[in-house]
Amino acid sequence: MLRIDIQAARDSATLHCAGRIVLGVEIEILRCMAEGRSEARLVLDLSKVDAIDAAGLGLLVELHCRARSRNGKLRLTKLSPSVRRTVELVNLQLVLEVEADEDDWDDEEAQSPCGRSMTA
Amino acid sequence: MPDPAPAVTEQRVSREFTFPGDPESLAGSRQAVMDFIAPHCSSDIEEVDILIAVQEALANAILHGCQKDCSKTIHCSVVIDPTAFTITVRDCGPGFDVEAATRAAEADMNTTTHGRGIALMRSLMDEVTYRNGGSEVEMRKLRGV
User: Fold this and answer.
1) Using the beta-carbon criterion (under 8 Å), do A95 and B110 form an inter-chain contact?
2) Domain range annotation of chain B
3) How many other CB atoms sit within 10 Å of the CB of residue B142?
4) How large is the ipTM?
5) Do B117 and A59 make contact, defined as CB atoms within 8 angstroms?
6) Phi and psi at residue B93, in whole multiples of 5°?
């Protein structure tokens, strides 16, 4: 299961993910939600993701490449220990924009008065 | 009075599974395997490591071995003894060149959207052995490591 809460600001959107990002409907839901955003900056909050598999990692690379091709940016924040470990096992922290740890979290989107929230 | 069975035998538990080879069954298949394994895990990290490895092995069997054909089946066996978790996944496909697939994935690891499954399995488990031309994979995770 994967739950995604969306918080949108003027030029950025944060997708707060909870559950597992694995092959199947979970991957398709995240792809659909991410590709449906028109903001230039997309932030994935992975603090409540307890597992990600190779297909999930592949989707992160796909979304990263898609954002760059549109002069946008994909940023991964608040990685759970499990997700961080998996990302680092395949060295994707060198490719993706990954915040070093939770202390680096820039909360501007969350505090934006333009922000709104919805659950899918 | 018969000799008591060795401790290893007493504590050894195992289960055999058969799953359909279609993608829609993946989540349920993974859950069935993990329902058996999880109570024996000593930490969340150990459980998640095994979960991801099982997910990758089952996904490879469904996507590549069974070609998403629900009429084909996947066999999975789990053996838990005091030293290790041993999970074997076997499909009915023709197998594949494991080394060639590994090299291809490593060559394009930074940008490819596929091909990280074998690398993940090898990183998360202590031993990963392919047999029968790649149609069977045995994964071992030492306990308490």
Assistant:
1) yes
2) 7-142
3) 12
4) 0.80
5) no
6) -80, 180
Question: Distance between CA atoms of B143 and B85, rounded to whole angstroms?
Answer: 7
The structural domains of chain A, ordered by start, are: 2-119 (3.30.750.24)
The runs of H, that is alpha helices, within A37-90 are 54-69, 81-89
A50: chain B residues, CB-CB within 8 Å: 48
Spatial strand order of the sheet with A73-77 comes to: A97-98, A73-77, A41-52, A12-21, A2-8, A117-119
Q: In the CATH scheme, what is the code of domain B7-142?
A: 3.30.565.10
Q: What is the pLDDT along chain B (145 residues), one digit of tens a residue?
A: 545 544 444 589 999 999 999 888 999 999 999 999 999 999 999 999 999 999 999 999 998 888 878 788 999 999 999 999 999 999 988 888 888 877 777 777 667 777 789 989 999 999 999 999 889 999 999 997 6
pTM comes to 0.83
Residue recorded with tokens 């299961």: A1
- The label of the residue with tokens 């076997």 reads B90
C-alpha torsion sign, points B84, B22, A33, A63: positive
Q: Nearest-5° angle of CA A85, CA A23, CA B62?
A: 120
Q: Which residues pair with A6 in a beta bridge?
A: A15, A118
Show residues of chain B in contact with A85, CB under 8 Å.
Answer: 45
